[in-house]
């Protein structure tokens, strides 16, 4: 059992916030396979205060989408406080503050990972959230701004002192982006520095990686991000590793295509036909990662524009693969392979 204050999870794992990805259909697919907690993508606190319709769309949820964490991005205590007021009436279970986003358009405003350079301000922001939120408060950080200023240990201690209920650390600096390997040593050092739960993020593409990071760092829980793209099954594998349910086999092609169809349908219901199909294109690429028989279908998926055409490709995929052939086990592919060209050019991509 893993707890963030009064929120108890049977399995110490969660789905990461991912801009341009973590919408309701994606979260619901992960939950179908046992994801115990999921986060919205980062929501700009100021935009929330302006009551922007687009921003509220990012908060769309449903009763099956619980427990839910809402991640806020911001650097003004007043806006964070007002954002909490704007969130009143919505159902959610955790508030997370983003001090991890490396994207220039965010950091140049002093938000996201730029907060790692302003420990006093970061503490104030956390204290503001702790004072006013009715739910547990967590903070997501990186190991530091760059390799010359790796300060996650100090930052985490300050965050905990300011009253946060858990710290999530992605073991890369802001300058690293997604390059190289996530540093496990810094996660261990954060774990040693604080008494609140520590959640590890970075390169968790398989159950084996999850087990390894727990062993090497002593972290209390793990946050899966790219490892869940096109692979919601990772959560049932993690649950089984923690004694919840029987160890599952990889999904059959029947199950894979069934899940793709469901995801497409939810995407269309949520976003409308045109946007729903466009949004699903990147998931088609992720779901079919490593499938040789999908090679010819992938470029087509980037062009189709109606749900019927997209479903047609899913049906072709089912027919193209020999029955009983299992979806390949998760690997540790490059960022490009993980994300596909569409997501990489997505301006909403942050992290
Ligand atoms: C497409 C994408 C969008 C992301 N958006 C966010 C975000 O909105 N907020 C955040 O804190 N992290 C974001 N991240 C970072 C992830 O939450 C996670 O910390 C990072 O990808 C490392 O985990 P991984 O190696 O398992 O992918 C994003 C990552 C990706 C790939």
Explain what the structure shows.
With 351 residues, the chain is of the alpha/beta class. The protein contains 15 helices and 10 strands. It has an 8-stranded parallel β-sheet. Strands 1-2 form a two-stranded antiparallel ribbon. The longest helix is centred in the C-terminal third of the chain and has 19 residues, at 253-271. α7 links the parallel β7 and β8 (166-173). The radius of gyration is 20 Å and the shape is globular. It has helices spanning 24-32, 45-49, 53-57, 77-87, 104-107, 119-132, 152-161, 184-193, 207-217, 234-241, 253-271, 273-287, 297-301, 307-320, 335-344, and strands at 2-4, 7-9, 13-15, 38-44, 68-73, 94-99, 137-144, 166-173, 198-201, 221-224. Bound molecules: flavin mononucleotide (FMN). The site of flavin mononucleotide has 26 residues, from β4.
Give a brief rundown of this model:
This protein has 351 residues and is α/β, with parallel strands linked by helices.
Radius of gyration, CA atoms, in whole angstroms: 20 Å
- Which strand order do you get reading across the main beta sheet? 3-10-9-8-7-6-5-4
- Strand segment tally: 10
- Helical content class: 40-55%
* Class inferred from helices and paired strands: alpha/beta
Form type: globular
Please tell me the overall pLDDT.
91
Strand content of the residues, in percent?
Answer: 5-15%
Give the termini distance in whole angstroms: 28 Å
Listed once per kind, the bound small molecules are: flavin mononucleotide
The topology string of helices and strands comes to EEEHEHHEHEHHEHEHEHEHHHHHH
Number of helices: 15
User: Low-confidence stretches at least 5 residues in length (pLDDT < 50)?
Assistant: 329-351
Largest sheet: 8 strands, parallel
